[in-house]
Design goal:
The chain is of the alpha/beta class. The protein has two domains: 172 residues, Rossmann fold; 222 residues, no CATH class. The chain contains 17 helices and six strands. Strands 1, 2, 3, 4, 5 and 6 form a six-stranded mixed beta sheet that branches. Strand 4 and strand 5 form a beta hairpin. Helix 13 packs antiparallel against helix 14. The longest helix has 44 residues. It is elongated and about 95 Å long. The N and C termini lie far apart (87 Å).
Length: 506
């Protein structure tokens, strides 16, 4: 009976077997890890080059058929696990420890021996199971000819791993290398810095560093690839943080609602026990508003309404329980440690800080009643953020255009602000402060009327300022505002628009 023999093509792994004379090395294809190159130049500024060159060599070897290269991310993860980020990678024991941890059969280890006047790089291929060096090579050349050195290194490593590669196969490897051409060692060094920043979790800085590399070497495809990976990580991290912050926001707001409801039933204790929770609740709604201004009006309007409702409740609460005395910066509120247990708790403050909200009661201006009313009017009419909040608005929107009632509501808020100022006590010190606040409040009324197209009423308010406060430091600027309105120029004292622009709601 005839026996047929099937002829199999020689595999690259068998070629590697023949080169190494080690029957135990038989595998479908050899697995290789490229360790970070050590810096033996004595110049610490070259440290990042170790990562940059290793990543470039990893990419080069991965182009060769019949060899599996361990990804740099797996190497970095193992180094962190073993706490070997700052070790010497040419050390034989370290090479074997890392290689075994990665399941690699071979490791490439090397170092920069000198950097001036020329760059010298030594490299070796080590078999993990025995620690035997199966290939050693060195290259020397000018730093501005870095790409030539890189090609020489890759060729030497392939000779050690796959000496029987055909001319065509070597040509394909060189073509792939050309897509990552880096001619100057400074670019490779900057690339290594970008990788190191990424490994340390500094994704924003890593993206900027890799952008710098791409600008200097637009043909460096590997840098573009790593940049896209960093950007993906960056946005995944942002999404994860946004999800955590959303949960914190919702949990804190729910907690504050419960706290307010309980304390409202015990007003005989002290109104200050309720106020901090109410102020923080308002700030959460205001932050939600600021964070959603780039979305359709239907999405941010509920946050606007919730903020205004909370602040109006604060006004009613303090007016009812504090009488005619103004609540201004002369009050310490929770700034006094004696009051701290009765105000916001530590866990409430920590959660607020996570959202970027400081303890609002450290600054009692948050509850200047007339200021709250003026802020509401300014928010509705011109989209200006409340004066005493740290929350920033990405844009200004004319919220009054969402609802016709908002315009009239703004004017009523300013009227009430003026009424509150009129009720305050009038001792000599207090009088100066009240006059300044009153002048500011009337000017805001004038600008509100002007924005609503009621020019004659606006001019009447401005004239009232000149009549009532003839010694005011703002007398000249108020006169100038009247003139510019009458001439139709509508310019401020420094040439800026008298009415700061705000966008229409979408």
């Amino acid at each position: 009976m005839a026996v047929s023999v099937r002829r199999c093509p020689i595999q690259p792994a068998l070629l590697l077997l023949a080169v190494l004379h080690a029957p135990s090395a038989l595998a479908a294809s050899p697995t290789v890890t490229v360790l970070y190159f050590d810096n033996d130049t004595g110049d610490a500024s070259f440290d990042p080059l170790g990562k940059g060159l290793a990543d470039m060599m990893t990419t080069d070897l991965a182009q060769a058929p019949g060899v599996q290269v361990v990804e740099r991310e797996k190497l970095e993860a193992l180094l962190k696990e073993l706490k070997l980020q700052r070790t010497r990678y040419v050390d034989p024991a370290t090479v074997q420890k890392i290689g075994k941890g990665l399941g690699a059969e071979f490791a490439v280890a090397g170092s920069f021996v000198s950097a001036a006047p020329d760059l010298r790089i030594d490299v070796r291929v080590v078999r993990i199971d025995s620690g035997k060096i199966v290939k050693a090579h060195k290259v020397i050349g000018r730093k501005e000819k870095f790409f030539d050195l890189q090609q020489q290194l890759a060729a030497a490593l392939l000779d050690g791993l796959l000496p029987a590669l055909s001319v065509a196969e070597r040509g394909r490897v060189k073509e792939a290398q050309a897509k990552n051409r880096v001619d100057d060692v400074a670019t490779a060094l900057d690339y290594g810095k970008g990788l190191d920043l990424r490994d340390r979790g500094e994704l924003g800085a890593a993206s900027q560093q890799l952008q710098k590399v791409m600008t200097g070497a637009p043909g460096f495809a590997l840098a573009k690839s790593r940049y896209l990976q960093v950007m993906k990580q960056l946005y995944l991290a942002k999404d994860a943080r946004a999800a955590v912050l959303k949960r914190t926001d919702e949990e804190l707001l729910s907690h504050l609602e419960s706290t307010i409801a309980v304390r409202m039933k015990k007003l005989d204790l002290n109104w200050r026990m309720i106020l901090p929770a109410m102020v923080l609740r308002g700030q959460i709604h205001l932050k939600r508003l600021a964070d959603s201004l780039d979305r359709p009006a239907a999405e941010y309007r509920p946050h606007l309404e919730a903020y205004l409702k909370t602040e109006e409740e604060i006004v009613e609460l303090v007016v009812d329980l504090n009488g005619k005395r103004p609540l201004n910066s002369g009050y310490g509120l929770c700034g006094d440690e004696d009051w701290r247990p009765m105000c916001l708790r530590r866990e409430e403050l920590e959660r607020a800080a996570d959202l970027g909200l400081p303890d609002p009661m450290r600054n009692s201006h948050f509850v200047d009643l007339h200021q709250i009313l003026q802020d509401h009017a300014g928010l509705l009419i011109a989209g200006t953020r409340p004066y005493y909040t740290p929350i920033k608005f990405p844009k200004r929107i004319c919220f009054y255009k969402l609802d016709k009632s908002f315009a009239e509501r703004s004017l009523k808020l300013l009227d009430r602000s003026q009424a509150l100022l009129d009720r305050y006590s009038r001792d000599q010190f207090q009088q100066r402060w009240i006059d300044e606040e009153m002048e500011s409040q009337i000017y805001q009324q004038a600008m509100t009327l002007l924005r609503l197209g009621r020019q004659e009423d606006a001019l009447a308010k401005l004239q009232a300022i000149l009549t009532r406060f003839p010694k005011s430091a703002q007398f000249a600027s108020t006169e100038a505002a009247i003139r510019t309105i009458l001439t139709g120029e509508m310019k401020g004292p420094k040439g800026e628009p008298l009415l700061p622009p705000c966008e229409d709601p979408k």
